[in-house]
Amino acid sequence: MAISPAYARPRTVDSGFTCGACQRTFPMAQAAGSLYVCPTCGHHSRISAHERVRQLADKGTFQEWDANLAGRDRLGFVDTKAYVDRLAEARQRQQLPDAILTGAASISGHPVGLASFDFGFLGGSLSTAVGERLARAIERSATELRPFVCVTSSGGARMQEGVFSLMQMAKSVAALHQLAEAHVPFISILADPTMGGSIASFAALGDVILAEPKAMIGFTGARVITQATYEQLPAGFQTSEFHHARGLIDQVVDRRQLREVLGRLLAVLGPSAAEDARRPA
Amino acid sequence: MSSTDLDGAAAGEAAQAAWAHVEVSRHPDRPYSLDLVQRCLDDFIELHGDRQGGDDAAVVIGLARLGGQPLAVVANQKGRTLEERGKRNFGMAHPEGYRKAQRLFTLAGRLKLPVVSFIDTPGAYPGVAAEERGQAWAIAQTLEAQLALPTPYLAVVIGEGGSGGALATLLADSVLVLEHAFLSVASPEAAAAILFRDAGRKQQAAAALRLEAANLLEWGIADEIVPEPPGGAHTDWDETARLLRPRLEARLLELTSRGFDPARRRERYRRLDGLFSA
Questions:
Q1: Which residue of chain A is at minimal alpha-carbon distance from B161?
Q2: What architecture (CATH level 2) is domain B28-269?
Q3: Could you tell me the pLDDT band of residue A50, with boundaries at 50, 70 and 90?
């Protein structure tokens, strides 16, 4: 998992919200109103899965899917702490069974299947439970002809689940095959960070790929590359803008415009487009 | 001796056993893909290039026959001499290597050829140029290509199976794993760096990841463990191939003789971890 120091956790105190980049403090109401994008420097702070859904879904439309789907510690994994204890703490703190929230919603009146990763839950890493909940959301979106919108914020594989974590890359891609067979669009939104196994599977396979400004995106983290190759990293390496300039991302979209951009995309790609594609010529 | 000491001793033994497994899989004299392709398959003809401007030598593709059956072959290739190691980047592919594999899957689909893959890679190449040219996108698209491949597909992990780079040619209908090979979410060194912030604790990480081949069979990720000569494949390449070839033949016959459906492959990887009821 690569975490750029510039993306240090924002501080939330009674007096307000401090931007992790420019260190200016704003009243909480102002920070929430600007969707946790710094009104001064434009830095996009990481937000929870629940906050993301609040920002994107039309008010009152979100219906959670598989709310109780949780995994278990298959390997009996212990590093500096037992994995079962890490899981219990993350569940308590993030109010989620694992690092993803999924459900049905409307965005600007368009019905969608919506998935949102929670970076605060063990770095948004891919566990079997995350992979399963993601795959089920993809399949249900295919069945219900809902365009599938996934906001990823994930460090990649979850080491504590070993090879089972690796296989979630295959699981998510297998599920996406059903979405393609149903001619239902997949809009993949990359938030900070989208690394490793997440970008090297489902997240890179969107029919349309959007990214938030200056999100860190890549297969191997910058620190590992430097250690392995001693290479000099180019300016802006692995940011959204870097990948956009290389034809790998369709648009870099400010969070404050994301809902509107999605609305316009869904108006073109919505369920009626899927129905048209399914109709024999 | 207290129970903590006993636990500590057991953990130490587990770490040593796991690390010994990794060391055999990385033995400098271990047969690499082409050594086994030449000994297990007939009439191998190498093809070159991804048809998009690159030809990554870390991935080898070609045509061959096995027991009369024409095949498409894709393999990770490590180098043995200093010069060859550089040329083949220690078996770590750039995006062009994964796109070369995709080309092979496309060719196999068009010509109705079964595919056999040989996996032996520490992982995808961790470099600036690889990232600039879309390493993650190339791997994701290769996963997609494997799950769409309309012909029978057999994979054999012959050495290191590192991370997403290994997965790019692993998602087969049958997966064989050599006795001393392994498949892992990350190299033990990388896992140790992430988990303990100390790459030196690689033995401990190897044990925690439980990356011995036998576990893959128990977990349903591999279908068969292929025995190696006593001590490991590096002791006798010919004997390694003599043990492997009939297993490839039998598995291939099994896949080509029954009614073949690529949807079954997708179902396998969709349900693989078996933790959740459908």
A1: A163
A2: Alpha-Beta Complex (3.90)
A3: very high
